[in-house]
Every structure is written in C-alpha cells, then in structure tokens.
C-alpha cells in the first residue's frame, strides 16, 4: 500500500470531512495498519485511489468501512477509575438530592467497544446497593459511536478474556457477568438493559438526542481540530440540563468557553458543570 505525501494529504482531508478526525502529519503508519487489509481485499493500491473509489461509488459501503477502521478503538473498563468514583460519590448524590424522584439520563459519547457505558451502568448499580431507593426512577444511558460494526458488538454485551482483563476486577466480573463458554463472558441483563446504543456522528445535529444530566465525552476530543472541539463542546452544553456535568478524558482540558462551563476540582480529577 502506498502512502505518499500527496496520497496521505488527500486522505487526511477526506477523514476530517467525514467524521472530524484530524490525523497528525506523522500518522501514515496508523493509516497503513488500519487500512492495509481492506485495501488489499478491494484491490486498491493508493489512498488517492481509495478516496476516488469512495466518491465515485457512494453506495458501496466502502466509506463506512474506512471510517469504521479508522475510528475503532478498544478501551478499558473503568478507565482512569476516578470518573466513576466521582460519579458514585459526588455527582449522583448531589443530583438526586437536588431533584429527588427524577430519572437520570447519561450520554456516553464515542463509546467505542462499550466498556464505558457498561462501566457507568455498573457504577449506578453499586450506588443503588449502598443508597437503596434513591434511584427509584432509574436511569437511561445513551451510548453513541460512529462505528456501526462496533455498536453491533456492543449490543451483545459479550467480551473475550483479553477484553475482560483490561481494567475489570474479579469482584465485578463475578457480580456483573455470566460465563458464555471458553474465554467469553456476557454482561448480565439488568446492567445491559440500562444502555441504549445508537449510531451517531459528533459532527451531526444533536437535536434528536434530547437533554442529559451527565455527559461522558472522554478521550475523543484529542482527535479533533481546536475549532471542531470548541463546536462539539458548545453543542454538548446545549444537551446538558442546567447544572449538569461533563466528564472529559484525563489528559483533556476545557480551554475557553467560560460562559458555558465551570470547572469543578474533585481531587483526583476535574469535571465541568454546565452554567
């Protein structure tokens, strides 16, 4: 597979228009590793040829396959730990104290292979076990991702031993999963049923998503340009109820937008409250 500079530049432009992801100039190796197999199957030799094929055959499904390959990301259970502790020990008690009897809505944006929304659902269960009756109206977790193939896998709630090993304690494995044969585990129905998976592009309209109490948008904004990032954060704010909370990735900071968000120090970690 050829990844000449002009080829790569054309592909970078295509990918940013398709899903907002801004590839660094030194990321040729990533494109090669992610697309080699697909391009061989299609008999495509260069990235320029790939982009031309996508544009000339919009209904072939090739565009979706390429975006899938470039955005698919395995992730961890309870990634960074502190967001889930902050959710359980600070955010949930505060929200249920201020609005008792409400049904919570939580958005897991760019949910990848499903570990984040299922980790949120387990956290809600752990909160309920120590705060019996407080979450009586329940909660809905809306999990979105660009990758249709990834979402199809998420919905089954099944994971292999390799995926399970990435951040999941033995205690949680025993409590929340059923064995499904050698080396496979399935999330128990009560945890799975709280999560609704939807295919969604962060560059599209957010109107159909409705309003949320809490938004997790972690470790995805790093892939966007500063302008696109600002636009996404502004539109996320419009989905948050007043006083709602935004969780970003551990290495991400919300620079600017002081009119929309207020930083909340949680030690460890920082979250953002919608003004």
TrEMBL record:
Sequence positions that bind S-adenosyl-L-methionine: 73, 75, 79, 116, 145, 201-202, 218-219
PROSITE patterns: CHER (PS50123)
Known EC number: 2.1.1.80
Alphabetic keyword roster: Methyltransferase, S-adenosyl-L-methionine, Transferase
Gene Ontology molecular function: protein-glutamate O-methyltransferase activity
Pfam family, one: CheR
Function statement: Methylation of the membrane-bound methyl-accepting chemotaxis proteins (MCP) to form gamma-glutamyl methyl ester residues in MCP.
Protein name (record): Chemotaxis protein methyltransferase
């Amino acid at each position: 597979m050829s990844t000449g500079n002009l080829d790569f530049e054309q592909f970078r432009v295509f990918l940013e228009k398709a899903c907002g992801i801004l590839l660094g100039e030194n990321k040729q190796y990533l494109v090669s590793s992610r697309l080699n197999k697909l391009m061989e199957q299609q008999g495509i030799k260069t990235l320029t040829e790939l982009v031309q094929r996508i544009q000339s055959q919009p209904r072939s499904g090739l565009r979706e396959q390429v975006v899938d390959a470039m955005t698919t990301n395995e992730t961890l259970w309870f990634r960074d730990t502190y967001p889930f502790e902050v959710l359980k020990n600070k955010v949930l008690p505060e929200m249920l104290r201020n609005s008792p009897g409400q049904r919570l809505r939580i958005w897991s944006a760019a949910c990848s292979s499903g570990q984040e929304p299922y980790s949120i659902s387990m956290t809600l269960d752990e909160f309920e076990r120590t705060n019996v009756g407080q979450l009586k109206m329940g909660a809905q977790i809306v999990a979105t991702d660009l990758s249709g193939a990834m979402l199809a896998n998420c919905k089954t709630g099944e994971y292999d031993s390799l995926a399970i090993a990435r951040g999941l304690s033995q205690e949680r494995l025993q409590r929340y999963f059923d064995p499904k044969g050698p080396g496979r585990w399935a999330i128990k129905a009560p945890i799975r049923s709280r999560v609704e998976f939807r295919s969604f592009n962060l560059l599209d309209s957010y109107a159909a998503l409705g309003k949320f109490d809490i938004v997790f948008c972690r470790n995805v904004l790093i892939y966007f340009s500063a302008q696109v990032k600002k636009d996404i954060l502004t539109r996320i704010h419009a989905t948050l109820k007043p006083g709602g909370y935004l969780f970003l990735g551990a290495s991400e900071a919300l620079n600017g937008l002081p009119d929309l968000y207020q930083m909340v120090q949680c030690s460890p970690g920082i979250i953002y409250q919608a003004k």
